[in-house]
């Protein structure tokens, strides 16, 4: 008998052999379990497949399927040769195979299967997901993270280079993992700045309607084409801004935001309307007298939240980060990078005078200063073959925006003081509170309490450029040089994946075990700067309470933090943290929101709790791409039994001939 991890690797090796066959349905039999010999999978006929068919209505009693995808990673071009005359207003050319129009501006990018976003994954709960990643980007390592999925028993597939795996070179790597939790997730590169260049896509796990915690009449339709993927976009490569150029002011900024890879190039800082109405926008088709489930995925990379509104429509929130919540109706959602929200719109009481409405996306914080906004379209009575639909109703603009009546997650909202401006802590999870022991996470005394300030270390320019100094940094503009820190430590990745190690060693550090060079850390000089792999050890089943405090000194930035391997309860958030009242706010009567990504209010704090019941090595980090790249991260080493890596799992590390 093989172990589960062995089955996965052998199965992955099996399915990438032979000539490709597309669209085949492969069901797992009733008696199949993940400890069975891999030869059982051979009998299913998966030996020469590159793709299988898993998009269907999820029904009770149906057999789970093998869901096989092939991802080809390439250097590619937006508005390249595949787009023919798209830039000249020939709308149909913008939808040609392999055309990536983005916002109509030519630029180099990184693509997956020559799509933007990359190919969506739509499966049913308990399906087995297999993704063969083929990296064709010469000289560039890559990896894919499955954002929000816990990877229980299978941390080897989490997709973080030098934490759970080696980067994928010009080769193929097979990710194999079960679709164990229903909800809205996404996948994205976890290497360098690749997400900024186009490596991201939707991952949705559905379950039978009878298994959902809401009533069956909460919505009529849950369609894959009603998934909204937000991403920011630049007209230059991200590396132009990393580590940065001293002449660049205001420094690092996106050019625009895209919806499902489409957008108009807009600039609110000028008096000219640069809209080219012949260029495509993302369009979502609905009919009257129905209700539809929509899913928002924020795959943005820069330091901004985004405000989402649908003209003349209320949004009934039903889930966040894959977890169902008690229904709450708003007209505006603010979504930060890494977050996901599911909502329902009802089309029964919409005026017959209009057949199309604007979906309005507005950048907040610094992106509001930059004048970044975008549109998509909600179209009534049309179908997916109709292109170039533009609503007749007046288009909102920054000077004439849509009204806000009730908004969730608005920056710097004072939590609990207004029924119109709602915080994450005003949400209530449903569905997971009945699982054994969950309530103790938010009611019991924590086993571990951690208080982690996050911010930046600013270097003295002379010290920074001393001979032999090579610290991580970003140059915002002029001589401002800084690195990101958590607990005064800039995280650096080790030379080989942390998961390979049987026990922590002296190459790691944390606040109680700092290298000698870090003993006298201050906030100004390179000589006292501390960078190392910040690894915190947790015992299996510890209840962990973690408070993040924003000490970045940036009043317009709210840092979104994502925890791999877990979801957590958001216990409280606010503007003024005081550690002397930490025992006064345990939740006892209702279930706090259960998420895997949460933003720290600007210059404020957030407190989360989770039970460390998933052994592995799990990254915890700010989801702004530049902040992670310059060290705003740490790793939780959760003790406990882990299955060994699949046989032949790639390894990497230092090679030093003389030391």
Sequence-ordered SSE layout with sheet pairings:
Layout: H1 4-15, H2 39-42, E1 66-78, E2 107-112, E3 121-124, E4 128-135, E5 144-147, E6 172-178, E7 183-189, H3 194-197, E8 200-206, E9 227-233, E10 256-259, E11 283-286, E12 291-298, E13 306-310, E14 315-320, E15 323-330, E16 332-335, E17 340-346, E18 356-363, H4 366-369, E19 373-380, E20 407-408, E21 421-422, H5 438-443, E22 448-458, H6 461-464, E23 474-475, E24 481-486, E25 490-491, E26 531-532, E27 535-538, E28 543-550, E29 560-563, E30 568-574, E31 594-595, E32 597-599, E33 605-611, E34 616-622, H7 625-629, E35 633-638
Parallel strand pairs: 1-4, 3-8, 9-12, 11-19, 16-20, 20-21, 22-28, 25-26, 27-35
Antiparallel strand pairs: 1-2, 4-6, 5-7, 7-8, 9-10, 12-17, 13-16, 13-18, 14-15, 14-17, 18-19, 22-24, 23-24, 28-33, 29-32, 29-34, 30-31, 30-33, 34-35
Please give a handful of descriptors for the protein shown:
7-stranded mixed beta sheet; Immunoglobulin-like; disordered N terminus; metal-binding; oxidoreductase; Laccase-2-like; 35 strands; 659 residues; mainly beta; copper; 6% helix; Cu-oxidase-like_N; 7 helices
Structure description:
The chain is built from seven helices and 35 strands. It has 659 residues and is mainly beta. It has three domains: 181 residues, Immunoglobulin-like (Sandwich); 187 residues, Cupredoxins -  blue copper proteins (Immunoglobulin-like, Sandwich); 201 residues, Immunoglobulin-like, CATH 2.60.40.420. The strands form seven sheets. A seven-stranded mixed sheet has the order 11-19-18-13-16-20-21. Strands 23-24-22-28-33-30-31 form a seven-stranded mixed sheet. A six-stranded mixed sheet has the order 10-9-12-17-14-15, with no helix packed on it. A hairpin with a 2-residue loop joins strand 14 and strand 15. The radius of gyration is 24 Å and the shape is globular. The chain starts with a helix and ends in a 21-residue tail after the last strand.
């Amino acid at each position: 008998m093989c172990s589960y991890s062995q089955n996965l690797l052998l199965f992955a090796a099996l399915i990438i052999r032979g000539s490709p066959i597309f669209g085949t349905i492969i069901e797992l039999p009733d008696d199949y379990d993940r400890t069975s010999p891999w030869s059982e999978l051979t009998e299913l006929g998966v030996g020469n497949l590159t793709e299988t068919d898993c998009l269907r209505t999820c029904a009770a009693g149906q057999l789970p399927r093998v869901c096989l995808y092939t991802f080809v990673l390439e250097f590619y071009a937006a508005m390249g040769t595949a787009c023919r005359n798209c830039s000249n207003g020939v709308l149909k050319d913008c939808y040609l195979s392999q055309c990536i129009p983005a916002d109509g501006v030519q630029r180099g990018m990184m693509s997956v299967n020559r799509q933007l976003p990359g190919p969506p994954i739509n499966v049913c709960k308990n399906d087995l997901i297999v993704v063969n990643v083929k990296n064709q980007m010469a000289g560039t390592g890559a990896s894919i993270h499955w954002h929000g999925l816990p990877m229980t028993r299978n941390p080897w597939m989490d997709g973080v280079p030098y934490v759970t795996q080696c980067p994928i070179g010009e080769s193929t790597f097979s990710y194999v993992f079960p679709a164990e939790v229903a909800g809205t997730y996404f996948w994205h590169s976890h290497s360098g700045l690749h997400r900024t260049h186009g490596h991201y896509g939707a991952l949705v796990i559905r379950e039978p309607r009878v298994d959902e915690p809401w009533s069956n009449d909460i919505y009529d339709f849950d369609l894959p084409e009603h998934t909204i993927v937000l991403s920011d976009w630049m007209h230059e490569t991200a590396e132009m801004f990393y580590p940065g150029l001293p002449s660049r002011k205001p420094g690092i900024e996106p050019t625009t935001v895209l919806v499902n890879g489409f957008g108009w190039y807009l600039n609110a800082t000028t008096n000219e309307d640069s809209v080219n109405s012949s260029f495509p926008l993302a369009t979502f088709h609905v009919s009257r007298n129905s209700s539809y489930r929509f899913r928002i995925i924020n795959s943005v990379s820069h330091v901004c939240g985004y405000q989402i509104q649908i003209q003349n429509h209320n949004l009934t929130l039903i889930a966040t980060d894959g977890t169902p919540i008690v229904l709450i109706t708003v007209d505006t959602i603010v979504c930060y990078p890494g977050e996901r929200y599911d909502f329902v719109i009802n089309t029964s009481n919409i005026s017959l005078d209009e057949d199309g409405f604007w979906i309005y996306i507005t950048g907040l914080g610094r992106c509001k200063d930059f004048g970044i906004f975008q549109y998509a379209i909600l179209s009534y009575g049309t179908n997916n073959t109709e292109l170039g639909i533009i609503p007749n109703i007046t288009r909102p603009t920054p000077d004439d925006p849509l009204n806000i009546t009730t908004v969730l997650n608005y920056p710097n909202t004072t939590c609990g003081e207004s029924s119109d401006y709602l915080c994450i802590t005003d949400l209530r999870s449903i569905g997971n509170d009945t699982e054994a022991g969950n309530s103790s996470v938010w009611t019991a005394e924590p086993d571990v309490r951690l208080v982690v300030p996050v911010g930046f270390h600013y270097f003295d320019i002379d010290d920074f450029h001393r001979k032999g100094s090579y610290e991580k940094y970003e140059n915002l503009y002029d001589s401002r040089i800084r690195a990101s820190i958590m607990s005064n430590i800039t995280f650096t990745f080790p030379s080989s994946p942390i998961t390979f190690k049987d026990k922590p060693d002296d190459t790691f550090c944390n606040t109680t075990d700092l290298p000698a060079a870090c003993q006298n850390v201050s906030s100004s000089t390179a000589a006292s700067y501390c960078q190392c792999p910040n690894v915190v050890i947790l015992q299996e089943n510890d209840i962990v309470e973690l408070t993040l405090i924003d000490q970045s000194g940036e009043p317009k930035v709210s840092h979104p933090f994502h925890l791999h391997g877990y979801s957590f309860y958001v216990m409280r958030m606010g503007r003024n943290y005081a550690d002397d009242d930490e025992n006064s706010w345990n939740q006892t009567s209702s279930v706090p929101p259960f998420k895997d990504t949460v933003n720290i209010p600007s210059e404020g704090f957030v407190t989360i709790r989770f039970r460390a019941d998933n052994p592995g090595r799990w990254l915890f980090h700010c989801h702004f791409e530049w902040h992670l790249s310059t060290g705003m991260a740490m790793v939780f080493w959760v003790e406990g039994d882990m299955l060994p890596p699949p046989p032949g799992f790639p390894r990497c590390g230092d090679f030093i001939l003389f030391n």
